[in-house]
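Hi there, hope your week has been kind to you so far. Thanks so much in advance, here it is.
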Amino acid sequence: MKIKNRLTYLFAVIVGALLLVFSVSIYFFYAQYRERDFTQRLKVRALTTAQIIVEVEDVDPGLIKLLNAKDKSVLYHEHVVIFLNRKEIFNTGVEKLMISKPVLDKIEKRNEYRFEQNEKEVIGITYSDHNGKYIIIVSGYDKYGFDKLQNLELILLIGWFIFILIVIGLGRFFADRVLSPISEVVSKVDNITASNLSARVQIGESVEQDELHQLAETFNRMLDRIQYAFESQKSFVSNASHELRTPLTSLEGQLEVGLISDRSIDEYKQILSSSLEDLLRLNGLLNGLLDLAQTDTATLDINFGPVRIDELVLTVIDECQRKFPHITISFEYENMPEEEEKLVIQANEQWLKTAVLNVIDNACKYSDNTKVQVLINVTDVWIVIKVIDFGIGIPEKEITKILEPFYRADNTKSIAGHGIGLSLSNKIFKIHKGNIQLFSNLGFGTRVFMALPVAK
């Protein structure tokens, strides 16, 4: 069942139930009112009869009948019975009213007693004078009251049925109005495919940003992420294909040249040496691609353990120093924490080492043969590893793109690289709830701040 139908029926059931309770309450309270009103009329008739008995010494039944005939307030099917000292002295009515001894006892005991007999309502009262104790009983049928009650019941029933039909119609109308933007969102989302990922969900403008606008904005944010991932994937495949094709083409060309004719041993050694460089370059590229793929697909399976940051950084510096012996790499603490345990965090040591190694290795490559500084700053919240070089720097317009896979600044084309290292380091730090920030001045060097949360 569609939501609009469910909302319509649910709304109709709720309103119908409330209206039914309201109608039953009206019927019940009016029935109570009719009963009290008719009882009061019976009591008035009984008191009127008592007054006649007091004012007239010798009560003539014919006189009472004559008075009743002239009285316009006589009740429908009225019946009057009078007892004097428990002896019946007057009984008039269409049907004889049977009064039992227990009923007389209750009337005498309570002085006023109401009961029902043969669909008639009866009231009995007592009155005393010099002749003795009178019991006056009056009965009647509230024909007009019951007719009104029946008409009220019919009106309430018909009104309830008509009102339910109106509620269903209005509920369906407003459900269509309220849910039409959702149908619009569904229709637009259904038309978004891989060929038009730039399309976005738009719904009618309103003064308030209601839940439907929030839904559309959520869809749009999701589409932004999907589009970014899709375009990143296309860029990744394109760049990876290009980067893989270059060393393979070079390797293929060198091997073909070596097979064209016989060459000297030195020439073969030169070809093999060049081929080995291409293979090493290809191997490094493949390792980088595998690491990138692993960070995207296996983040939930990483094994974390205690890692001391300063020891890891010193290990990386030693490796880079052996690779770049002509560059001076310095290390120092900006502030050494009083508790050395603050330098220990939960991390994957191998991945974190790879991330830091990529950053320091880049600093050495692009330092323009000058020194590189590595600093550690520990606060109550973060451990920050600062890597500072004084090399070629990064153009300001490209610094926001430098963390994307395969992106390389224009001024680095002459230096070997694939543009994978920093993007891989950035992903690894994000996995560890950290981040990387870059600050650079073209021609003056680059500062890379790698922040990791302090273990709690």
The mean pLDDT is 80.
